[in-house]
Input
Amino acid sequence: MFERFTKDARAVVLGAVDHAERSRAAMVDEEHLLLALLDREAGRAAFALDALGLAEQRGSMERSLAEAHRRGGLSRADAEALSGLGIDLTEIVSRGEEVHGVGALESGREDGKGDGKKKVRGGRWAGHRPFAPGAKQLLAQSLRVALAHRHRHIGDEHLLLALTARPGVAAEVLADHGVTYMAVERVLWGGEGQAKAG
Output
């Protein structure tokens, strides 16, 4: 499928891998793809994000993503569902951090110690970063989005649309900042006659 990606979409995927490596995450996830999209200064997704006023909101988005990681990668919708069962996620995070330190519940660490790398012979570190299941599903959904728009190639705009369409932390953070599927479509194509790919 990667051969169908445009140059801009490939740059986003490679940027996501770089974000995962810098944060020492065990896997590349949807949030890394979002951060890579935010890094871009060129491409259709960058145009849409800029038109929706996201350039000046990056810090706020990064804080929202960090807070979700502190909750173990759970979205607010997940926290509300747990609350409905009588489970207070805020209390769990607080108690876990009292005992094990700040960030104890952060998701995505390969060894639980935060280095995200495996030791190999000779004491060297190897840092291969596979894609998490959610990130793989996002890439597949970007193909469906492209096909729904009758586009032959997957662009960074299709990655952005797929991020907004999938439930989870990345879509929640985007929506909190005014970036929804319909808003992106409206900026890119006027929103007329476009189907949501799911």
Q: What stands out?
A: The CA atoms of residues 24 and 115 lie 5 Å apart.
